[in-house]
Design goal:
40% helix, 10 helices, globular, eight-stranded mixed sheet, Rossmann fold, 20% strand, 292 residues, alpha/beta
Amino acid sequence: MDQRYIDLYDQYTHSGMGRREFLKRLAKLAGGVAATATLLPVLENNYAVAATIAPDDARLETGYLEYPGPRGAVRAYYARQRDSRGLFRRKQRRAAVIVIHENRGLNAHIEDVTRRAALEGFLALAPDALWAAGGTPADADRARELIGKLVRAETLADYHAAADYLRSRPDCTGKVGAVGFCWGGGMVGQLAVDDPALSAGVVFYGMPPAVADVPRIKAPLLLHYAGLDERINAAVPEFEAALTAAGVSHELHRYEGKQHAVHNDTGGARYDADAAALAWQRTVAFLKARLG
């Protein structure tokens, strides 16, 4: 696919550009409305194909819960693995992973990633950053708009509360890591800055935190970036240099020739199955090594 189409879509999904303006620009690039109609299905996310692991998979206990946050009860999706007899033993403690969604909110894809983490043996929790607005709407563009209106400090406080909640659970070992994608990847970086007790952080193409804050990071980091993601990559060299200078344990992988959101298997032309599989394999190995 012409890189200009993907760059325009990335601009649309990460800025205040309205859908009408996006479609107008895409039609101009593609040569008409008919070409736009052909391009949209391979540019936009298709959450109908999100479930690589069925929500009712017998190996898992899944559902929604609320945990206490500073502004009220935060709604989240959770998943945890049953034993070989289909039971969940509450005395069997597991390390926990917070899964932080993209700027489209807690959708079917992120819930699927949460189940993937649970099948690897982790107690997995995916908070909905839009809980105070009534939860993530079905309209992805509306979710993006609402994400843009969030107060960053309040949202981060909800994620800090998620980490505290998981540590307090009797079925958690006390070790908590975080995995975030795009907007959520940026949140993981900031969570690592603010929470010295975080045991591990995994960033998928998220905007790095301020360089001045990097020395506050105590958690080891695994960083995934896409080679063609110029918007995010512009800040990565300075971030990597700051991590090295501060002695922060980190591992960085760049997937050359790949797009932003390369891991999102609902993401059409931006998704790459081989790169996504490799990134997830590295993520699981990293979390198991750091969390147990």
